[in-house]
Amino acid sequence: MSCTVAIFGPGLLGGSLLLALRKRQPSTRLRAWARRPEALGPIREKGLADFSDTDPSAVAAGADLVVLCTPVGAMAGLVEQITPSLSPQSIVTDVGSVKAPVHHAIAPLAQGKFSWLGSHPMAGSEQSGLAAAREDLFDGSLTILTPVPATPEATVTSLRSFWESVGSRTITCAPTEHDRRVAAISHLPHLLAAILVNAADADARAVAGPGFRDVTRIAAGPAGMWTEILLENKEAVLLALDALEAGSREARQALAQGNAAEITTLLHKACQARRSLS
Amino acid sequence: MSCTVAIFGPGLLGGSLLLALRKRQPSTRLRAWARRPEALGPIREKGLADFSDTDPSAVAAGADLVVLCTPVGAMAGLVEQITPSLSPQSIVTDVGSVKAPVHHAIAPLAQGKFSWLGSHPMAGSEQSGLAAAREDLFDGSLTILTPVPATPEATVTSLRSFWESVGSRTITCAPTEHDRRVAAISHLPHLLAAILVNAADADARAVAGPGFRDVTRIAAGPAGMWTEILLENKEAVLLALDALEAGSREARQALAQGNAAEITTLLHKACQARRSLS
Fold first, then answer.
1. Which secondary-structure segment (H or E) carries B17?
2. Closest C-alpha to B274, from A193, A123, A255, A44
3. Which strands sit side by side in the sheet containing B118-121, from one edge to the other?
4. Which helix or strand (DSSP H or E) is residue A118 part of?
5. pLDDT of B1 over the 70 cut
6. Which residue is closest to B193 within chain A, CA to CA?
7. How far apart are CA A143 and CA A120, in angstroms?
8. Ramachandran sector of residue B234 (left: φ over 0; alpha: ψ -120 to 50; beta: rest)
9. pTM of the model
10. Which pLDDT does position B193 carry in this prediction?
11. By the CB < 8 Å criterion, does B140 face chain A?
């Protein structure tokens, strides 16, 4: 376990990390960076960090672990700014929902100056911002670490311990494989949930029951953040959309032909797979 | 309120009606029909009906209200069998998820021999069968009644009272309009949830979080029942699928072009509409 952790971007995930670490690892020294000075107010009022600032280098100084919780597009620029404050023993990770683009942007900056390994804690809610942060956000969650062959085993071990210390399980897979999986189980479902909401007019939505609310719950998530995620992972999302459209064409044909056996097979396969999830 | 109610098909909805009426309307006399004698065992053991049998005519005799809770395909045949036991004052309704086909099958059988008005209580769960029945299943639910211009106002009023007596709110709309609305908020979402599950392989499903579980929860519903619903409402489902595919094409194009503004507009519109639901 690192003893000084710097959190960059105290929103839902970054703020929840501060809360969880304060509660579960009281001896860990916490540092927090936010772009806007106003965002530091609540951090200071609640005593969530031992040091907080808008200067990236000042916050990174002495950190054993830096966790980037900013939008994915801002990460590489921040890392360039803090590299002089880091040591070869420092670990940098992030919490972005897309891993290959982040890996390709940050790995070349490491070069022995710090150790880099991406993380994706699969926790969150349709809310965002520090106000929605919770100390138990990671309890029972799954965090995917995305090492490549060059990643030192010690970095993987340290980062596993970190995520386990805030209540998360961990698994590892390559960055591109991560992006393929999350396109199928998160990004495409989000896009489709939004399309489903938009395809239902107000009269239809007025009779929506719990089923529609479940299917479309994620569509209430912040539009700007999800636009960025979808665009960052667009190759994998487009491939997942191909698979979905192929399934949709088969279902349409079976429906138009009144082919009950084929529809039942489709629904039964999904029913079995879905029941095995919970 | 009717004082003798006959429930045909004591599954999740029929069984929940028996439980709700026993609890909230103890003076109502309850009659229950099931196709298979074994299905009557639990009804009798739990004292859920004053009379139960596998003979439709015997169960319908003397009923002020008959509620058909069988599969939609079995309803017209049952109504033909019980018509001689009914009076012009008897009301026949159903709980089917599709209204135009049921209306077209049953309305011609009424002809002054009984009063017919379709109902769709929008309650249920991914479970089915009497074992899943709950006395509070209709609490806070919405029931759509589907009168046509020829439906007597008194029948609408009686049936509204009946559904309100088990805890449901009611609205009315024409059978075809009902089918269009539920295709958009129930049937198409169900089909898509199943296609989404099938499009994600086991590795992807292994990292699924709460979002995927929400989106796909309804896909755990009974395949046979949903095949029947989708086929009964296939015209409206195919139209809803057209609307969805148009939305999907727009999203695909915006994504491929990296058009952030258009994706944000799509997601923002859905976000606003979804937030207004809850």
1. helix B12-24
2. A193
3. B118-121, B142-146, B169-172
4. strand A118-121
5. no
6. A215
7. 5
8. alpha
9. 0.82
10. 97
11. no
At A107, is the pLDDT very low, low, confident or very high (cuts 50, 70, 90)?
very high
Nearest chain A residue to B204 by CA distance is: A181
Length of chain B: 278
Distance from CA of B16 to the nearest CA of A (A): 17
Contacts of B248-257 spanning 24+ positions with Cβ under 8 A: B248/A192, B248/A195, B248/A241, B248/A245, B251/A191, B251/A195, B251/A241, B252/A238, B252/A241, B255/A230, B255/A231, B255/A234, B255/A237, B255/A238, B255/A241, B256/A234, B256/A238
Q: Per-residue DSSP letters for B215-248?
A: HHGGGGS-HHHHHHHHHHTHHHHHHHHHHHHHHH
Contact B185 A205 (CB under 8 A): yes
CA pseudo-torsion sign B39, B45, B48, B53: positive
Give the CA distances from residue A9 to residues A37, A48, A110, A224, in Å, rounded to whole numbers and listed in that order: 12, 13, 20, 16
B131 touching A, CB under 8 A? no
State whether A270 and B141 contact (CB < 8 Å): no
Question: Which residue in A13, A195, A234, A238 has the most chain B C-beta atoms within 10 A of its own C-beta, making it the best mutation to test that interface?
Answer: A195
In this complex, do A205 and B273 lie within 8 Å of one another by their Cβ atoms? yes
Place of tokens 């009144």: A258
ipTM: 0.85
Separation between Cα atoms, residue A131 and residue A120, nearest integer Å: 21
Nearest chain B residue to A122 by CA: give it: B209
Residues of B in contact with A170 (CB under 8 A): none
Cβ contact (<8 Å) for A198 and B230?
no
Q: Which domains does chain A have, with CATH numbers?
A: 4-173 (3.40.50.720), 178-275 (1.10.3660.10)
- Residue at token pair 């089909």: B191
Under the banding of pLDDT at 50, 70 and 90, the label for residue A1 is very low
Averaged pLDDT, B170-195: 97
**What gap in Å lies between CA A251 and CA A262, rounded to an integer?**
8
Size of interface A-B (CB pairs under 8 A): 259
Q: Is the pLDDT of residue B125 over 90?
A: no
Q: From the list A260, A269, A278, which residue is nearest B213 (CB)?
A: A278
Angle A211-A212-A214 (CA atoms, 0-180°, nearest 5)?
Answer: 65
Whether B234 and A227 lie within 8 Å, measured CB to CB? no
Nearest-CB residue to B189 (from A211, A220, A268): A211
Query: Chain B partners of A182 at a C-beta cutoff of 8 Å?
Result: 204, 207
Query: What is d(CA B189, CA B209) in angstroms, rounded to the nearest whole number?
Result: 19
Question: How many angstroms separate the CA of residue B187 from the nearest CA in chain A?
Answer: 10
Paired tokens of A153: 């085993």
CB atoms within 10 A of CB A59: 24
Q: List pLDDT tens digits, range A108-154.
A: 999 999 999 999 999 876 678 899 999 999 999 999 999 999 999 99
Inter-chain touch A196–B122, beta carbons under 8 Å: no
